[in-house]
Amino acid sequence: MADEQYLAYQSQMKRPIAGQSLTNDPENPAPFEKPPEYTNVHEASEYLFIKIIEKETYIPLMQALSSGTPVMELTQIILFEGFQNGKWNPDLMVLLAEPVAFIMIALAEKSDIDVIIYRGEEEDEREEEELFGVSIEAETLKKIRSASESGIVPAGSFSPALAEKIEKAPEIPQESLLAAPEQEAVEEEQAPEQQSLMAPQ
Fold it and tell me: What are the tens digits of pLDDT across the range 113-161?
């Protein structure tokens, strides 16, 4: 689905013309035009874990996995958003795909959620899957698929400190996964009652 959206956007021909970035104001560069905030896979993985388990992210993310949204689509969305915000460069973004997928699988396992790795996974076993236009090799896909089936993430997928944090992450009760996202009740202020202009005085 994410690839379809990307192709649809590309076909609109709303891309910048060649050299357009050279006309941008150098005093106000876009976040992704500055040096990235993270250049290390482990540090970026720690940052992503903290963002993923924030209350406003964690439950909706687990609800999405529970409702059948593929892990790799969510991975692509999370990582591309980080790139746009200047958190990492495109090279690190691709390297982070595997750890982020494993983080989501590990958290889903804690909440007893069966995940789908990529769309169409049930029909075929692909030799490769594309993420950001880069092919993910069959061996990596096999490791991710195996982790989702067994609930065991391969050793060395992330640092021991991060593995410990994932172990301590809270479980989400099944009723929270099935419930619609909560909406905060907003108390409406009642306007003072106005008398009709036609009312007798």
Answer: 888 887 765 555 555 555 655 566 666 767 777 777 776 777 767 778 8
Interatomic CA distance for residues 156 and 10, integer angstroms: 37
Tell me: pLDDT of 48 over 50.
yes
Q: Cβ–Cβ contacts within 10 Å for residue 66, how many?
A: 19
CB-CB neighbours of 152 under 10 Å: 12
Q: Token digits for 151?
A: 């609930």
Domain boundaries, the chain: 34-119+126-178
3-state per-residue secondary structure call for the chain:
CHHHHHHHHHHCCCCCCCCHHHHCCCCCCCHHHCCCCCCCHHHHHHHHHHHHCCHHHHHHHHHHHHCCCCHHHHHHHHHHHHHHCCCCCHHHHHHCHHHHHHHHHHHHHHCCCCCCCCCCCCCCCCCCEEECCEEECHHHHHHHHHHHHHCCCCCCCCCHHHHHHHHHCCCCCHHHHHCCCCCCCCCCCCCCCCCCCCCCC
Q: How many CB atoms lie within 10 A of CB 141?
A: 22
Amino acid making up residue 36 = P
